[in-house]
Specification:
Subcellular location: Mitochondrion inner membrane
Distance between the termini: 73 Å
Shape: elongated
Oligomer: single chain
Number of helices: 7
Low-confidence stretches: 15-37
Pfam family, one: NDUF_C2
GO biological process, one term: mitochondrial electron transport, NADH to ubiquinone
Order of helices and strands: HHHHHHH
Keywords: Electron transport, Membrane, Mitochondrion, Mitochondrion inner membrane, Respiratory chain, Transmembrane, Transmembrane helix, Transport
Helix content: 55-70%
Mean pLDDT: 79
Family: Belongs to the complex I NDUFC2 subunit family.
Radius of gyration: 28 Å
Length: 157
């Protein structure tokens, strides 16, 4: 649990283009560093923590998918519940929060759909690799005629 929390702290504290001091030469001089930073790693984003690099080769899911719509609705409903619990007008108060919660739910749903498609693709890849390595266990069924499949018909009178 602690590793997950530390990872999330690193994700949300990472600036998309590195440290401001690393880009600003005068800030570099003020903090005592005159040489540029050498071995800087790429910034970690939440998507990179959540999805491995293999998932980039998959086609993206549609923007409007079942999971996104459901979690967007849950986010909107959470904003409505918040209004109701705080004794505010349910639909008319905090429209900006309703939009924000819906957007966050939609975004989380989109990345969950990406993760789901990655997991299914990974299982499919492993299954097809197993079938390729063991063809004797997965022979094609020999063709049978329809007369061999059904029993002979004897009408009951």
């Amino acid at each position: 649990m602690g590793g997950v929390i530390l990872g999330l702290i690193q994700v949300f504290s990472a600036h998309p283009r590195g440290s401001v001091r690393a880009r600003n030469p005068s800030a570099r001089l003020r903090c005592g560093r005159t040489a540029p930073l050498q071995h800087r790693s790429a910034p970690v984003t939440l998507a990179m923590v959540f999805l491995p690099d293999e998932a980039r080769s998959l086609p993206p899911p549609p923007i409007a998918n079942r999971i996104s719509a459901w979690l967007g609705f849950c986010g909107w409903f959470a904003a409505l519940l918040d209004n109701g619990f705080n004794q505010r007008p349910v639909l008319r108060a905090g429209v900006h929060r309703q939009i924000l919660f819906t957007t966050v739910g939609w975004f989380v749903g989109y990345y969950l759909a990406k993760r789901t498609e990655y997991m299914y693709a990974k299982v499919d890849r492993e299954l097809l690799e197993y079938v390729r390595q063991h063809p004797e266990d997965f022979r094609g069924a020999e063709k049978r005629r329809i007369g061999e499949v059904f029993e002979e018909f004897h009408p009951v009178r």
